[in-house]
Amino acid sequence: SCMFYLQVLIVDEVHERHLHCDFLLGVLRSLLPLRPDLRLVLMSATINIKLFSSYFNSAPVLQVPGRLFPIQVTFMFFTIFYIFQQ
């Protein structure tokens, strides 16, 4: 199997809960006891750390602080209305 050759598996954006990701995490959780040499890295900017750590048997957590960028909300209703009136 090709999984035999993997040493590290990285799953990004794990906070986006959908059927495929939940299924993948369930399979990986079942696989880890069979492959103690496999390292699983879950990444997300908005992850529920306690939930995911406890799901994977109190897995260690590494937090890297990120930068926040200001967001400016601009409503363009009048611009769009003007474009479609021409």
Which CATH C-level class is it?
Answer: Alpha Beta
CATH topology: Rossmann fold
Number of helices: 3
Global mean pLDDT: 82
The second-level CATH architecture is 3-Layer(aba) Sandwich
Shape verdict: elongated
Strands in their spatial order, largest beta sheet: 1-2
Helix content: 25-40%
Largest sheet descriptor:
2 strands, parallel
Write the CATH homologous superfamily: P-loop containing nucleotide triphosphate hydrolases
- Reading the helices and strands in chain order gives EHEHH
- State Rg: 20 Å
Distance between the termini: 61 Å
Total strands: the figure is: 2
Number of domains: 1
**Multimeric state of these chains?**
single chain
List the uncertain runs: none
Backbone structural class: alpha+beta
Strand content: 5-15%
InterPro entries: Helicase_ATP-bd (IPR014001), P-loop_NTPase (IPR027417)
GO molecular function: helicase activity; hydrolase activity; RNA binding
Keywords: ATP-binding, Helicase, Hydrolase, Membrane, Nucleotide-binding, Transmembrane, Transmembrane helix
Domain Helicase ATP-binding: 1-65
Structure, described:
This is Helicase ATP-binding domain-containing protein. The protein has one domain: Rossmann fold (3-Layer(aba) Sandwich). The protein is elongated, with a radius of gyration of 20 Å. With 86 residues, it is an alpha+beta fold. The mean pLDDT is 82. The chain contains three helices and two strands. It has a two-stranded parallel sheet with strand order 1-2. The chain has helices at residues 19-31, 49-55, 77-85; strands at 8-12, 39-43.
